[in-house]
Amino acid sequence: MELSIDRLTKQYQNKIAVDRISLRLNTGIYGLLGANGAGKTTLMRMVCGILKPTSGTITFDGIDVSEERYRSMLGYLPQDFGYYPEFTGEDFLLYMAALKGMRKPQARRKTVELLKLVSLHDVAKKKIKTYSGGMKQRLGIAQALLNQPKILVLDEPTAGLDPKERVRFRDLIKDLGKDSIVLLSTHIVSDIEHIADDILMMKSGQLIYQGKWTDKSGNLEEFYLKQFEEIE
Question: Where is the ABC transporter domain (predicted)?
């Protein structure tokens, strides 16, 4: 299983948002770090096929990002995820399953399974407007997992969560990284440090660091801040 990103570039008039990035990602969790404007969300949106690159390619086991087969293997939780406040959690997942083209029996089975996985089965019949921020984020993860994705892209999934929710969330993501490629972006360095198998660091559209981070590597937050001290 390999997600291949080859010399990927995205340019907007005079600004280069992503500058010739090449990556090979296999099963596991990849933590993407960078200051605002570093190009993280642009990179993730291209991996999801939402944005078209100016140049370069993205393939998964040889399947191009533009193909329907690629999208069928993808799960995505954007930074600003749109919810329907009057829907119940269960109705929302069934609706998203229908949009993904899933058959009703499979959609129902998967909805029950995922609500249990993200610990929302006890509030499945309650309206989303009654959910806390953490519950909405977990529902977002559940919708991203409906089609059993091989590639899971999570943009700022722990934003606004309290410490207890963040730990719960990290445990959930850690499990998902055993069978899929998880690309996770967040400003909370400790979340990345706890769960990522590999660290990716972006600055001004370029990849400035890629590698594993262990206790011997030192303090990740200090290293991160050093890279961006002129921005901070």
Answer: 3-229
- Domain span holding position 87: 82-148
Angle at 139 between CA 201 and CA 165, to 5 degrees: 65
Dump the DSSP string for 163-196.
HHHHHHHHHHHHHHTTTSEEEEE-S-HHHHHHH-
CATH number of domain containing 19:
3.40.50.300
**What is this structure's pTM?**
0.87
Task: Give the span between the Cα atoms of 228 and 232, in whole angstroms.
Answer: 6
Cβ within 8 Å of residue 80, ≥6 positions away: none
Q: What gap in Å lies between CA 103 and CA 181, rounded to an integer? A: 25
Q: With beta carbons less than 8 A apart as the criterion, state whether 175 and 141 touch.
A: no
- Decide if 132 contacts 55 (C-beta within 8 A): no
> Which one, of 77, 10, 6, lies nearest residue 48 by Cα?
77
153 and 230 part of one domain: yes
